[in-house]
Structures are given as structure tokens and as C-alpha cells.
Amino acid sequence: MRKGKKILLENLEVQSYAAGGKSIARIEGKVVFIEGAVPGDVVDVRLSKSKKDWAEGKAIRFKKLSPDREEPFCSHFGVCGGCKWQMLPYEKQLKYKQQEVSDQMHRIGKVALPEMQPIAGADQIREYRNKLEFTFSNKKYYTQEELDSLPMPEDGPRGLPSIPALGFHVPGSFDKVIDIDHCHLQSEPSNAIRNAVRKYALEKEISFYDIRNHVGLLRNLMVRLCTTGDLMVNLVWGEDDEDVRMGMMDFIKMSFPEITSLYYTINRKFNDSLHDQEPILYHGNAYAVEQLGELKFKVSPKSFFQTNTRQAERLYSITKEFADLKGDEVVYDLYCGTGSIGICISDKAKKVIGVELIAEAIEDAHENAKLNNINNTLFFTGDVAQVCDDVFFEKHGRPDVIITDPPRAGMHERLVQQILQMRAPLVVYVSCNPATQARDLQLLAEAYDVTAIRPVDMFPHTHHIENVVQLKLR
Ligand code: SAH
To answer: What are phi and psi of 374, to 5 degrees?
Structure first.
């Protein structure tokens, strides 16, 4: 049925789950990828794309709800892009993630696989993030319900007042921010801090950042809560007004004595990234300390650290198990970030060599090794595809085990060729994107067999998947 130019498909029975949080229905031999629905729903779908044998669109009406559905626990669900899978019970989320890995491996990788081990689900499925970043905006995002309850101004919706907000961006819309009242991703006092900062700012009439005109004082708020209890806050300002700033920073310091590191940053640039900015310590310690098992890690305001600490422990322990170390191996930790994998496995290796692109992360890696009295690790800054050549491997020792943990794009093909040439007896491939991992496994299949595979759920209620694969030289 056609409505205007948009095609509307009615009464589609959603059958299964597809990659990327979408689900699938089939109609007249065509596969329809649907956003916002779960298997078991019957929905009307407005198509945004329609090709010969597939289409995609959004569920706009629910005729029947799947018996598998659960009531979402967050009042911001549906608007916020954060936890899109709250309507699915956790066991179903895990089942679909497991299935996606399996599908990707078969469809893209086309390699022989051992039986997959069951996905390592999280014990803690709320308040699992150690870090959240909130955005200030002079433009609050109005939900449909709020719009419906407002009297329509004479000059139409454009006349809506701009209300300041502190929370998360609306997915795909950078100038509008959802005013978050309670986020279930981080434990208290995360919500209390954010809400108190907002209240104080509104009372004192401190301006919220206006991204279109690049003006306004308050810009971002980062809250890091470690499993050790360390609590770091960094308040980012778009301009500096010393009196206002001091007032706010003192207010935060007095109201939340549990903060162990209080920072502020003045970011006058056009973008929010802090990598080239200088956070200034206002009160407390320069570092927060996070802990993985017995090991401690110093985290500075700009450092990267796995966002789900408990599941990072699981991920690393599976990685360690797959590395199958006896104690006399030369291990390479490629795409090592702040060296956390290398440091966690170093007690079982003769020597660990980490390589990472970001120089600051390598500085953290050195610090972290020192903090834990580890003396058998070396860390190098550089592009793995450039650094890891014959001379490098010759210099630091032929690899017994290579651990690789690339970003979403997967490994550079040159690195894959280098691994094939080095013929390390064992490779552990940690991936945050099973599609690119499957592609790389197919290339590695020339000399390697996949001998173990286990997904890990780092981000409950999202469709993100982490997957660990063990490969052995044939
Ligand atoms: N293993 C780490 C980090 C993995 S994230 C951990 O568990 O915490 C992937 C890392 O790869 C990032 O730190 C990113 O900076 C780095 N990276 C991306 N491209 C790279 C490249 N070409 N060479 C080296 N490192 C790279």
C-alpha cells in the first residue's frame, strides 16, 4: 500500500533478529529489516529503502506485541539512543548476540568453526558503566508527549521556547539534548551530581552551550566512578568566567565530598574532543585508580579505560585462557591501548610487547606497568601495520602468541599478512565488531584454524558485541 511516496507495509510478522539491533520479516520473497521491533511483534512498517529483494524501514504501528517483550525500565527509553534493547529480557539479548556472532562467522567468515562457547553475560546489567559524559545544550529536545501537552503557538512549532538541558544527544541530532533525569547506566552519585549541577546552573543563570552559535559557558560533564570507589568529575566550559567557574566548582566540591578528583577544562574549540585540551585539577588527586582483579590502573581525565570494569575482567580472563600461556612465551599485544590486556597476562609470559597508535595511551601503559611492579612489558607508539615488520619481530623476539584487539574497522590487511608471515603458533583475536573479525578470519584461514570462540557481553541493553577467538597455526 502506498501513502504519498512512502511505502507502508502492514501487518508484518517479525520473525527473527538481524545484525545491528534490527529485526527481520519476510513478505513476498523480500526480506524487510525493521527498526524498533522485536521477533514476535506484528507491525506496520514505513519503508525508507526498497530494493528488489530487500527493504528497510521503521515500525510505526504495533498491531500485536511479542510475548517476549519486557517493560523498559527507563523513562527515557525510546528517545535516548543509549539502551535500545530494554524491551527484550536479558536472556533474549544474549541469545541474539550469540546468534549474530554465529551468523557473521558463517556468512562472512565462511571458515570452519568449533562449537561456540556460550556468551559470557554480565551479572550486573544496570549501572555497569564506569564513565558517562553528559552534554549541556541551550536547546532541550522535546519528546512527542511534551509537544502534545504544549499549547500550539500561533507561529507553529518553531516558536517553541529554547530550554537548557543537560543529558545525552538525540541520536543523529547534535544540537538537541535530552534532559536526563535518571540514567541507569552508572550508580549514584552520578545522577545526583548531574542533577545538582543543572539545578545550580539554572538558579545562577549560567549559560548552557549553544552549538550553533558557539557561545555559552557550560559545555560537558564527565563522571567516572571506579570499582575502587574513586570518583572523578571533569566539568568542561566553553568560555571562561572565573567568578562563575569558582562558584560552580566550589559548589560541586562542597556538595559531593566523595569526589576524589575534581577537574575543570576550558574548551574553546568547535568540537568537544579533549585530546588536545588541558584539564585542570581543582581539588583532590590527579588520577582515579581502577582495579582489574588484583591489578591497579591509573586513569587520568583523558585516558581510555574499558567502560564496563567487571566485564573487562571477564573479557581479559577469557583472552588469557585462550592465550594458553605456560610462562616462557613472547607475547605481542597489538592495539594495546593503555596496556591493560598485556599487563593482565604478564604474570604468565616471559615478555609482553604492546603496540598502540596513541602516544598518551602508551604513557599510561608505562605508568600502569610501573604501578603494578611489572618488569617484563615493553610498549611502543605507532601504527601496528607500520611498526610490526620483520625487523621489529626480529628485535623483540619471534611471537609465540599474538593478541590483537583492533577497533571496529578490524585489522589492517598488511598486519594480517605480517601475522601470516610470522607464523605465530597461537593468535587470540579480540573484536568489538564480529563482521570485520569474520572478514579477517577468512584471510587468516590460509594458515590458521579457529579453535575456540566465545562472545562477551560488555554492554547490556545495547546491540554491541565483543567476541574472542583463538586461532592455531595449522
Ligand atoms: N586493548 C585495549 C584497547 C583496544 S581498543 C583495551 O582492551 O583496552 C583499540 C585500540 O587500537 C585503541 O586504543 C586505538 O587507539 C588503537 N588503534 C587504532 N588504530 C591503530 C593502529 N593503526 N595502530 C595501532 N593502534 C591502533
So the answer is: -100, 125
Report the CATH fold assignment for 94-124+308-473: Rossmann fold (3.40.50)
Q: 8-69 and 131-292 share one CATH topology?
A: yes
**Residues taking part in catalysis:** 432
310 CB-near residues (< 8 Å, 6+ apart)? 122, 123, 124, 128, 227
Please compute the mean of the pLDDT values over residues 114-124 and round it to a whole number: 97
Ligand 1, residue 361: give the atom nearest the CA: 13
Cβ–ligand 1 distance for 307 under 6 Å, the answer: no
Looking up cell 580472563 gives 317
pLDDT score, position 3: 45
Q: Which atom of ligand 1 is nearest to the CA of 312?
A: 7
Q: Which ligand 1 atom sits closest to the C-alpha of 336?
A: 1
What is the fold of 8-69?
A: OB fold (Dihydrolipoamide Acetyltransferase, E2P) (2.40.50)
Instruction: Tell whether the model's pLDDT for residue 1 goes beyond 80.
Output: no
How far does residue 101's CA lie from ligand 1's centre (Å)? Answer: 21
For the chain, what is the mean pLDDT? 94
Interatomic CA distance for residues 413 and 426, integer angstroms = 18
Question: CATH code for 131-292?
Answer: 2.40.50.1070
Question: What is the pLDDT, as a whole number, of residue 2?
Answer: 46
pLDDT of residue 156: 55
Please tell me the distance between residue 167's alpha carbon and the centre of ligand 1 in angstroms.
28
CA–CA dist 174, 376 (Å, integer): 45
* pLDDT tens-place string over residues 18-36: 877 789 999 988 999 998 8
Q: Is 94 in the pocket of ligand 1 (CB under 6 A)?
A: no
Average pLDDT over residues 437-456: 97
Longest dimension (CA), the chain: 77
Domain ranges of the chain: 8-69, 94-124+308-473, 131-292
